[in-house]
Amino acid sequence: MRDDPQCVDCMTALVEVQDLTKEFRTFKRREGVKGAIQNLFVRERIIVKAVDHVTFSIEPGEMVGYIGANGAGKSTTIKMLTGILVPTGGRVVANGFVPCRDRRHYTKRIGVVFGQRTQLWWDIAVVESFKLLKELYEIPDADYQKRLGLFSEILNLKDYMNTPVRKLSLGERMRCDLAASLLHNPPLLFLDEPTIGLDVVAKDRIREFLKEINRLERTTVLLTTHDLSDIEELSRRIMIIDRGKILFDGDLAEMKKRLAQYNQVKFFLKDRAQAASLAQITTDGISCERVDDVTYLMRFDRDKHSSAEVIRNLVNRLEVRDIFIEEEPIEDIVKRIYLSGEVG
Question: Which among 207, 266, 323, 341 has the fewest CB atoms less than 10 Å away?
Answer without folding.
Answer: 341
